[in-house]
């Protein structure tokens, strides 16, 4: 059974950093498209950063470029999201997702895929 488990969320002040982790079990992440989405209260789930399987390139939404970094550790079967210089608008529940599909990071982040594997989410709150 495919399972994703996120961790690393928390409450931090603006300007702070967090590192989210997402560990997969029951499958190997290597050939999968992977990504991080977030959902703020009252808003739709949106793609934050995705790593495509077709070209290995990363996608970041404009509001996080230069502040967030997505990475994959093959040995640990884990994907990370390093978040620096956090802002109050980064607040939300962060979900990781993975799907065995040939797709670019841009298109994988375009909208949530209900047929993909999803974690349960980890809460991120940016507040002073």
Features:
mainly beta, seven-stranded mixed β-sheet, four-stranded antiparallel β-sheet, 3% helix, 11 strands
**Can you tell me the residue ranges where pLDDT is under 50 for at least 5 consecutive residues?**
none
Structural class: mainly beta
Percent of residues in beta strands: over 45%
Query: Radius of gyration over alpha carbons?
Result: 13 Å
Report what the structure shows.
This protein has one helix at residues 105-108, and strands spanning 3-7, 10-12, 18-25, 33-39, 46-51, 58-60, 68-73, 78-83, 92-99, 117-118, 122-126. The protein is mostly beta strands and 128 residues long. The strands form two sheets. Strands 2, 4, 5, 6, 9, 10 and 11 form a seven-stranded mixed sheet that branches. It has a four-stranded antiparallel sheet with strand order 1-3-8-7, with no helix packed on it. It is globular, with a radius of gyration of 13 Å. The mean pLDDT is 96.
Summarize the structure.
With about 130 residues, this protein is mainly β.
Task: Draw up the topology in text.
Layout: E1 3-7, E2 10-12, E3 18-25, E4 33-39, E5 46-51, E6 58-60, E7 68-73, E8 78-83, E9 92-99, H1 105-108, E10 117-118, E11 122-126
Parallel strand pairs: 2-11
Antiparallel strand pairs: 1-3, 3-8, 4-5, 4-9, 5-6, 7-8, 9-10, 9-11
